[in-house]
Design goal:
12 helices, globular
Length: 300
């Protein structure tokens, strides 16, 4: 019965809403690329907007396969085509993600102010699920065997590379130094106001896409306040699983349920919104993967 309700909600959904969401999120990714360029400026690097934007899109595509792989890949691509040190721009990614964490915290504070009961109930549910006792009685043995296995591997690795340890340490120091320089670039921004404007624009577009997406299925149309709560918890879902698969729709459904929407309808809407984002990344990331080497070959 629930499956029938779920599939019916998807069949009767306004699929045309995918197109405005596509444009909104595509624009948010563009602002993210512009913001990334600002963080690189204090390091003395100013890559082209096209290469930066295409690298960001390819990074999102890579994240669907392996979480955080895209962060490294887009730095590698930009280092290849713009001749900038990869380890330094990895540091700028660390700084950017730190600011994103702060931004997500602000979104949660807004949601807390607008929907305190919903956020509190959602947090209690999340906490009860993550702190549930494990039923595996062999948990202690499993940890012991894992620890022994890791110890054996580390000892074997030490004997294999012991002659190269000084050069490895020097390389690691250089990498860490480059990353730290990239991180500190965020404290030397030349255009602070523009950086905050881009950051506000990115998260506002995320919120707008969520709000528009809530109107895609009948019965899930909601206010901006509900959209803020959905964005807050759905962002956690994007972190927990590769590309947010499963978790994004689940958190959306739970927030909508706390706002009086049937859970199955909320799950249908969350699934549709997740699929829209998945489709955007596949299309734009795939096109970027093809275009990036072509435009740089022509430029060369």
């Amino acid at each position: 019965e629930e499956w029938t309700k779920f599939t019916l909600a998807l069949k009767q959904s306004k699929l045309w809403i995918v197109f405005p969401v596509f444009i909104i999120l595509g624009l948010s990714h563009f602002l993210r690329a512009l913001r990334w360029r600002l963080i690189m400026e204090p390091l003395g690097y100013r890559p082209s907007i096209a290469n930066t934007y295409l690298a960001v899109l390819i990074g999102y595509l890579a994240n669907l396969a392996i979480p955080r792989l895209g962060e490294v890949l887009k730095c590698t691509l930009l280092a290849k085509y713009e001749r900038v040190p990869a380890e330094k721009i990895v540091g700028t990614i660390v700084a950017e993600r730190a600011f994103d964490v702060i931004s997500l915290g602000i979104v949660f504070l807004l949601a807390l102010g607008l929907q305190f009961n919903v956020i509190e109930a959602g947090w209690n549910q999340l906490k009860s699920q993550t702190t549930a006792p494990m039923t595996n009685t062999n948990e202690g043995d499993w940890k012991m065997y894992l620890l022994i296995g890791v110890g054996i591997v580390l000892i074997a690795l030490f004997f294999i590379i012991r002659k190269r340890i000084p050069s490895i340490i020097a390389s690691v120091k250089n990498i860490i130094s480059g990353i730290w320089e990239g991180v500190m670039s965020a404290t030397k921004l030349k255009q602070h106001n523009l950086f905050f404007l881009y950051s506000f624009g990115i998260w506002f577009l995320y919120l707008l896409a969520t709000y528009v997406g809530l109107h895609a299925t009948a019965g899930t149309e909601s206010s901006f306040a509900t959209a803020i709560s959905c964005l807050a918890y759905a962002s956690i879902g994007m972190i927990l699983t590769p590309g947010g698969i499963g978790a994004y729709a689940y958190f959306m459904a739970k927030v909508l349920e706390l706002n009086g929407v049937d859970y199955t309808l909320g799950l249908a809407n969350g699934t549709l919104q997740w699929f829209s984002q998945f489709l955007i990344v596949i299309v734009l990331g795939g096109v970027s993967l093809i275009i990036l080497p072509i435009i740089n070959k022509q430029a060369k």
